Amino acid sequence: MLPRLPSLRAHLLTLWILLLASAAATAYLLTEFYTQSAAVQVAQVELQAARACREIGDRFAFFGSGWTGSVAEPDDTLKSQLTDVVVTALASHPGVEGGIWTASAGSAAYAFPTYEGTGPKTDLPAAEIDTIRRVNAEALSAERPVATRRVSRTQTLVVQGCPLRGPIQGATAWTMARVHTDQGRAYGQLLAGFGFLAATVLGSALLLGRLLLLLGRRIARLEGQLGRETAEGDLPHLAPTGLRELDRLVEALNAAGTRLAAARHRAAEAERLAALGQLAAGIAHEIRNPLAAIRLKAENALASADPARGRAALDLVLDQVARLDRLLRDLLSLTQPRRPVPTPTDLGLLLQDCAHLHDDFARAQGAAITVAEATTERPHLDPDQIRRALDNLLLNAIQHSPAGGIVRLSGVREGDRLRIRVTDQGPGVPESLRARLFDPFVTGRPDGTGLGLAIVREIARAHGGQARLAAPPPDASGPGATFELDLPWTASQPTSRPPTSRPPAS
């Protein structure tokens, strides 16, 4: 036995989940690469800011190399000179701004010579004054260069402070540069990578979703076509689905259906021939017995001079001829069934008439017939054929009923089916006869022809239903037998007549 595998839908969902996981991992790697690239940019800017700070220090040292004494607080002239020192130092460092800071007076000089705006920038950036003051204080206190970063969503601010040695007391140099992390080649690559990921994941999701939807619809259509009943019970012809893989399966099923129909036709032909053979054997057997009795009685009558024996022989011959006539009539009914002519039928009245017709025979057998239940609606039936089927079933039930037994007749609607039942209180049907009960010439009575139930089955089939041996009702006493006509319900206008019930005949 092959192992049970997950469905195609489960496989596709698993593939989609794996695709999402792969996209998430790729997005994580892209983010990490971008972060590392941004970190490299920040490190390069920090190195450039440190070089610019040292450049200011070197220029300041050269500027104050001939001075004697010290300056506590620079005046405006000195500040202008110091600004020139800063401009000269930062001219070769694009994107770096900076200045000289004193512990007592604050900013002594500021310049941004590579500023790309309209005109020179001379105003100290107000938003970063606290950071500049803190970095310069730390550099003065530690007597060594100090660097700091301030990271925001779109940029990283790098500030460098370094102490100055010279005539100005408590002087430090500072530089500042910005790294715009939402710009540049790395950021463009990140956006392009995320855009590609989004497009591929969305496209794959749409493609898989469409595939799942198409497969679901096509398979549901195939299920509907396969579930549709055909006139002869063959496989229905399946229409192409438009999907190449499914169409190969459709072609295989259609080919199998064609082979199955041919095999069914051959089997039906063989079954028909077998039935004809069985029927011919049964007819020969049923005819041979009366003919043998006729011949024996005729020979005895011819050999005897007693007129009474000749009379008795003629009586027996007439009885056997009548038996043969009944047999031939039943055979004609079985082999040449009349197509039913459905008309709106008062089922309750039909059941009452059938029960009344057999009251005398039932009374002679010590039994009684009662109509237990009948629908008030008027189904479309052929009343003559249904009456003939009920005649056979009632005769069987009466002949198998014990003294004092009751034969129950009912006809009820159950959903889209009409079920007409005949129930007796006899010994029931032997197990050996159940499988062949409706076959011709199968009977449990010595005087029966075995054609009555076969005729009942043909009438039921002509109405699009079936005849069968059903389970007895729950309130039945004794084993008994219940024969049922299971017919499709085709209703006409309901009648206002109340349900009828006939008491047991006394």
Automatic annotation (TrEMBL):
It catalyses: ATP + protein L-histidine = ADP + protein N-phospho-L-histidine. The keyword Cell membrane does not apply. Keywords: ATP-binding, Kinase, Membrane, Nucleotide-binding, Phosphoprotein, Transferase, Transmembrane, Transmembrane helix, Two-component regulatory system. The chain crosses the membrane at residues 190-213. CDD domains: HATPase (cd00075), HisKA (cd00082). InterPro entries: HATPase_C_sf, HATPase_dom, His_kinase_dom, HisK_dim/P_dom, HisK_dim/P_sf, Sig_transdc_His_kin-like_C. Residues 496-506 have a biased composition (Pro residues). Residues 282-491 form the Histidine kinase domain. Residues 466-506 are annotated as: Disordered. PROSITE patterns: HIS_KIN (PS50109). One of its GO terms (molecular function) is phosphorelay sensor kinase activity. The keyword Coiled coil does not apply. Its EC number is 2.7.13.3. This is histidine kinase.
